[in-house]
TrEMBL record:
The keyword Nucleotide-binding applies. InterPro entries: GlnE, GlnE_rpt_dom, NT_sf, PII_UdlTrfase/GS_AdlTrfase. PANTHER family: BIFUNCTIONAL GLUTAMINE SYNTHETASE ADENYLYLTRANSFERASE_ADENYLYL-REMOVING ENZYME, GLUTAMINE SYNTHETASE ADENYLYLTRANSFERASE. GO terms for molecular function: [glutamate-ammonia-ligase] adenylyltransferase activity; ATP binding. Residues 250-471 form the Glutamate-ammonia ligase adenylyltransferase repeated domain. One of its GO terms (cellular component) is cytosol. This is Unannotated protein. The keyword Nucleotidyltransferase applies. It comes from freshwater metagenome.
Length: 636
């Protein structure tokens, strides 16, 4: 909690001018005293007081803190409190920040009794003294807090440790580690011994604990870092990275404490740790660049199994870059969706090329894939189209489609790149896996239902023969955008949406905080956008793009578009982050308190605030959806 407070101060930009919460400030002194009270107070009744200065004296008398350290801490506490009080008298309000303008700073310095002298102005003297105080306090704080921990972890036996196991657990619990015993054991493994990596971990222990405490799940972060440092070669590589770039160590703590999935990817690719603090190194290449590297990764291998494994490793390495930029807030939700989509397209292109198609063959993306809005947990909704009507052409098209699905979907979760869903094709699971253009056109003209037309609003060529895919898109455009939407069509879409609301929320998921199917959440907004697009002939492949196009075409009021966009981006961001934190797909916000805390921390908020944000944006969104999608009157 203290580390989070310091991070919050750093974000405000006030730096060491903050008297209370900055490093070396009042909170450092109070926190040090309270920590020692927690460690020793259950045995020593004299340490159960609440006055900081009195407790410093008692701690020194009992030998729990060095006399000189206690004296300097007491003097610093008095001086910082005096400055704080004088500052508040000057401004007549609760302020804790030293002013930056020279007039106010000079006035404060003179109130504190400083006068201009040969060694500097009154303001300069005060600034130097405060800097010295903060440096002294921070040094004592870190020495009291960390040195016993380091000695405890670096020793080989309990008898050699300078503090008890219980005291060690208290210190670790203060950093947010729930399983303090397991944490102590893991830290002991990292810091014990004479290896170069162990010595480096000893030096970095204070920083690592601070950085891990800022992550959503410090216990998970430490576990993944320990696993990453398993093995002498990998340990040396990571130690070298840490030595050259402490920022890489800090970034690793954030990633490892956020997502087991991402930690496991780093475990298989430790060279990526050095890239974590470099946004440009994490950035996704353009489509052509991704396809080139994906194809090269497959061409280097022989046999389907090795090719699939190589392609998966390539995909995972690129996925890490997208997710890391997401976690570090370098990219917004829309960019994350585009990058995930481009990565999936390049994966399909490389896999398809490895199959050496003997006829023109293309993959058309629909749903979120077609809309360039993939989430981390998204399936790839696709349709396959081929050219040629001879029996040999049909056989070849089936071979390609089935082999492509096997290569991308894998045979086990460990070999899976993506789940491929072909159910939006004509006749669904009962229809042919791949068709020619004429077959698609006949079906759409003579048999298609309104919901199938709605699904094709996001159709786009994603892999294979671009010319062939473009011909199919021409047929789709004539069918989808050729004639508006009848009253019967509107009624069918509304009825289908109502069935989804009534039937589809799985057992065990919270309907009140469902990110996909909840009232005013993703599905509501997607249906509303697609209905308006079909009604008014507004072409756009994605939901966010659709909102822009509808607003620019004066179909959608700007305020309504903003409300829907805010809810969509919020739900999508939380859904994406929950996948990373949970390392498994889920469409509702977690109900378990610990999981809810991890998710909220990863988004720099608290569980209650996150839920209240959901309620606010989805309530406003649902009001717009009821008016625009269901045609209900506005609520006055």
């Amino acid at each position: 909690m203290k580390a989070r407070t310091e991070e919050e101060v750093a974000r405000t930009g006030v730096g060491n001018r903050e008297l209370k919460r900055a490093p070396g400030g009042i909170r450092d002194i109070e926190f040090t005293v309270q920590l020692l009270q927690l460690v020793h107070g259950h045995r020593d009744e004299d340490l159960r007081g609440s006055t900081t200065l009195t407790m410093l004296e008692e701690l020194a008398n009992a030998g729990y803190i060095d006399d000189n350290d206690a004296t300097r801490m007491s003097a610093a506490y008095r001086e910082l409190r005096t400055v704080e009080h004088r500052l508040q008298l000057v401004d007549e309000q609760q302020v804790h920040t030293i002013p930056t303008d020279r007039v106010s700073l000079d006035h404060l310095a003179r109130v504190m009794g400083r006068r201009d002298a040969p060694e500097g102005t009154a303001a300069e003297q005060l600034e130097r003294e405060l800097h010295l105080i903060q440096t002294t306090v921070r040094g004592i704080h870190e020495r009291v807090y960390f040195r016993p921990l380091l000695e405890a972890f670096a020793t080989r036996t309990t008898d050699e440790a300078s503090i008890s196991a219980e005291a060690t657990e208290v210190r670790l619990a203060a950093f947010g580690f729930v399983d303090a015993r397991r944490t102590a054991a893991a830290l002991g493994e990292l810091t014990r011994g004479l290896r170069r990596s162990s010595r480096l971990m000893q030096q970095m222990l204070p920083l690592l604990l601070d950085w891990l405490s800022l992550s959503p799940d410090p216990d998970l972060g430490l576990l993944l870092i320990r696993n990453l440092l398993t093995g002498p070669r990998q340990s040396r590589q990571i130690a070298e990275t840490f030595r050259e770039s402490p920022a890489a160590a800090q970034s690793l703590c954030t990633i490892a404490g956020t997502s087991r999935l991402l930690g496991d990817i780093l475990g298989a690719n430790p060279d990526l740790v050095a890239r974590l603090p470099l946004p440009e190194e994490l950035a996704t290449k353009d489509r052509a660049g991704l396809i080139a590297t994906a194809t090269a990764s497959v061409e280097l291998r022989e046999g389907t199994i090795d090719q699939q494994a190589s392609l998966r490793r390539w995909q995972q390495r690129n996925l890490l870059g997208i997710a890391a930029r997401d976690v570090f807030a370098h990219d917004n939700v829309e960019q994350v969706g585009r990058d995930l989509t481009t990565l999936a397209e390049a994966t399909l292109e490389a896999a398809l090329e490895s199959l050496d198609p003997q006829i023109p063959f293309a993959v058309v993306g629909v749903g979120r894939f077609g809309g360039t809005e993939l989430a981390y947990a998204s399936d790839l909704d696709v349709m396959f189209v081929h050219r040629g009507s001879r029996p040999s052409d049909i056989d070849e098209s089936r071979r390609i489609a089935k082999a492509l699905m096997r290569m991308v979907a894998g045979s086990t979760p460990a070999t899976r790149l993506y789940d491929i869903d072909c159910d939006l094709r004509p006749e669904g699971k009962n229809g042919p896996l791949t068709r020619g253009i004429d077959s698609y056109a006949i079906y759409w003209r003579e048999h298609a239902l309104t919901w199938e037309r709605q699904a094709m609003t996001r159709a786009r060529v994603v892999a294979g023969d671009q010319s062939l895919g473009g011909e199919l898109l021409d047929e789709i455009e004539q069918w989808v955008w050729g004639g508006g939407l009848s009253a019967e069509g509107i009624r069918e879409i509304r009825q289908m949406k109502a069935r989804i609301e009534a039937e589809r929320i799985p057992m065990g998921e919270d309907p009140d905080f469902h990110l996909k199917l909840g009232r005013g959440s993703l599905s509501d907004i997607e249906f509303t956008v697609q209905l308006l697009q079909l009604q008014y002939g507004v072409k756009a492949t994605g939901t966010i793009d659709g909102l822009r196009a509808l607003a620019e075409g004066d179909v959608l009021d700007a305020d309504d578009a903003e409300i829907l966009n805010e809810a969509y981006e919020f739900c999508e961001q939380v859904r994406n982050r929950w996948f990373l934190v949970n390392s498994a797909p889920s469409d509702s916000m977690p109900t378990h308190p610990e999981s809810a805390l991890w998710l909220a921390r990863s988004l720099n908020t608290e569980p209650g605030a996150l839920r209240e944000h959901y309620r606010r944006v989805t309530r406003r969104s649902r009001t717009v959806v009821e008016r625009l999608f269901y045609g209900l009157p506005s609520k006055s």
